[in-house]
Write a sequence for this structure.
C-alpha cells in the first residue's frame, strides 16, 4: 500500500504551483522539506550549451556533476535511501510548469512513474518545448510524509490549479511527497 501511496503522490504532481511559500506551492502547512543550495545569480536563466566534458545538451543551473544515475523507479521504490542526498536521474520530460518554467517532471520506464524536478522561481527557467525531450537532472531528494488531511489539501489544490477531477472520499490514506530540489539539469533531444 505504501508503494501505491508513493505512486499516487507522484501522479498528483507533488508540488503544484511555482510561487515561493508553502501555501502558494500547494504544500500543506508545516516545516518545509530540505532544499538544494541556491544556484548562483550568474547562472544563465534560460540555459546555455554545455561546456566540453559536461553532459551534452542545454545546461540549466549548475549542470550535472554526479557521475552515476539512480533510476526514477529506484527513487520511487526506496525514497528513504536517497532522502536529503544529492542524486542524478534521467528520463523523458513529460510536463513543464506552464506558469514560470520552474519545474519539470521526468518519467520512469513504467506508466505513471514520474519525479518532479523543482527550482525556485527564476533560478532556472525550463521552456515548454522541453516536453518530450530527454533530461539529466541533479538535486537533493526531499521526502515528506503527509497526513491524510495534507494529502486531501494537495489533491484539492491540484484540482483547482490544473482542472483535475477530485473526489475527497477517494483519499483514504496519507501519502508521501517526493521532489528533487534541483541544482542543475541538461536537456537534449534524445537519450
Amino acid at each position: 500500500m505504501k508503494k501505491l501511496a508513493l505512486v499516487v503522490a507522484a501522479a498528483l504532481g507533488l508540488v503544484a504551483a511555482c510561487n515561493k511559500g508553502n501555501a502558494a506551492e500547494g504544500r500543506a502547512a508545516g516545516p518545509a522539506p530540505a532544499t538544494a543550495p541556491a544556484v548562483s545569480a550568474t547562472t544563465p536563466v534560460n540555459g546555455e550549451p554545455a561546456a566540453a566534458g559536461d553532459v551534452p545538451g542545454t545546461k540549466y543551473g549548475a549542470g550535472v556533476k554526479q557521475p552515476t544515475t539512480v533510476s526514477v523507479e529506484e527513487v520511487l521504490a526506496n525514497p528513504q535511501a536517497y532522502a536529503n542526498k544529492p542524486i542524478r536521474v534521467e528520463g523523458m520530460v513529460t510536463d513543464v510548469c506552464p506558469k514560470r518554467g520552474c519545474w519539470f517532471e521526468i518519467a520512469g520506464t513504467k506508466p505513471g512513474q514520474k519525479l518532479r524536478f523543482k527550482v525556485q522561481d527564476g533560478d532556472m527557467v525550463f521552456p515548454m518545448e522541453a516536453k518530450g525531450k530527454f533530461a539529466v537532472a541533479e538535486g537533493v531528494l526531499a521526502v515528506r510524509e503527509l497526513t491524510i488531511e495534507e494529502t486531501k489539501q494537495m489533491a484539492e489544490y491540484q484540482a483547482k490549479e490544473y482542472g483535475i477531477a477530485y473526489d475527497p472520499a477517494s483519499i483514504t490514506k496519507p501519502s508521501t511527497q517526493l521532489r528533487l530540489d534541483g541544482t542543475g539539469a541538461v536537456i537534449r533531444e534524445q537519450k
Notes: The chain has one domain: 2-188. The mean pLDDT is 78. The two ends are 33 Å apart (CA to CA). The CA atoms of residues 67 and 164 lie 37 Å apart.
